[in-house]
Design goal:
alpha/beta, Rossmann fold, Alpha-Beta Plaits, 2 domains, six-stranded mixed β-sheet, four-stranded antiparallel β-sheet, 11 helices, Lipooligosaccharide transport system ATP-binding protein, ATP-binding, antibiotic resistance, ATP binding
């Protein structure tokens, strides 16, 4: 444990450079190239995100970083080591939170932590102490001796994260950490992840929730088709690929096409959807006034700030990828 916190930094082999660095990284499955020569760098102590539609290559990249899938080409170092040669040493200093909870339902909440800790060769006394600390961190102390199965989805997710912290990891990989959780459970989980980051744990996250990426990630990459389409902080990406605001104009289906010539000069970019027009502009209210001045009467209108979701959809498209 160490230092009276949930995380005690392991300084063995600590390097001054990036915690994860990939150059021209490639992953092939037969003739399919899932990751196509990407460069990626994760700095110590940051929360880094991989965003992308299904099949973008983000899970394949995470599996290479997690030392469970060897790279096909390129260079990769994790914690200053080569995953091909030093996989066990890297995994000993890493925590992994899979997309689906894989808790042992035949054990209690406490036993899930203690048994997992023994896999790392930790003493029984150490894992008992560690379990107490992690139960408090995960807000599960009162459920410590309960069976796992009756727990809510949010409780199971917090337990899965607590289990991944048993070995005091420097690097925590989280695959879709809040999928299927209600808003209250998501916010509680975010709070726990913020606490980890403040204590020096480096986080790498994949998520389909754009608000989650904006909340959690210092930096992120948007992947599409096995390549990196964009990289930066959420604010940098919004500034680079969108406008400050978006004006949404809703119409009865089919009527919005006839409005396009009347309003397209009011926006930096205009997008036509089945029931609305999206006008990307730095001054949404002013654009709305001009829309009304031209006699356009939508069913409803909304001025909102641009979000990471606007960036994501612009870079990867709105078509569903299975």
């Amino acid at each position: 444990m160490g230092r009276g916190s949930v995380h005690g930094v392991n300084t063995e082999g600590e390097q001054a450079g990036p915690l994860v660095e990939g150059k021209a990284l490639v992953k092939r499955f037969g003739d399919v190239e899932a990751v196509r020569g990407i460069d990626v760098e994760v700095r110590r102590g940051e929360a880094f995100g991989f965003l992308g539609p299904n099949g973008a290559g983000k899970s394949s990249t995470m599996r290479m970083i997690g030392c469970v899938s060897p790279r096909s080409d390129g260079d990769l170092t994790v914690l200053g080591m080569d995953p091909d040669r030093d996989g066990p040493r890297i995994r000993a200093r890493m925590g992994v939170v899979p997309q689906q909870d894989n808790l042992d339902t035949e054990l209690t909440v406490r036993q899930n932590l203690q048994v997992y800790g023994r896999y790392f060769g930790l003493s029984r006394a150490h894992v008992r102490r560690r379990a107490v600390e992690l139960l408090e961190f995960a807000n599960l102390t009162e459920r410590a001796d309960d069976e796992v199965e009756p727990l809510s989805g949010g409780m199971k997710r917090r337990l899965t994260i607590a289990r991944a912290l048993v070995n005091d990891p420097e690097l925590l990989l989280l695959d879709e950490p809040t999928t299927g959780l209600d808003p209250q459970a998501r916010h509680l989980l975010w709070d726990r992840l913020f606490r980890l980051k403040s204590q020096g744990v480096t986080l790498i996250v994949t998520t389909h929730y754009m608000d989650e990426a904006e909340q959690l990630c210092d930096r992120l990459v948007v992947m599409d088709g096995g390549r990196i389409a964009a990289e930066g902080s959420p604010l940098e990406l919004i500034a680079r690929f969108s406008t400050r605001e978006v004006l949404e104009l809703r119409f009865p289906p089919g009527e919005q096409d006839g409005v396009v010539p009347l309003v397209e000069d009011l926006a930096d970019r205009l997008e036509v959807l089945p029931d609305r027009l999206l006008l990307y502009t730095d001054a949404g209210e002013a654009a709305l006034e001009r829309v009304h001045a031209r006699g356009v009467r939508p069913l409803s209108s909304l001025v909102r700030r641009s979000t990471l979701e606007d960036v994501f959809l612009r870079l990867t498209g709105r078509s569903l990828v299975e």
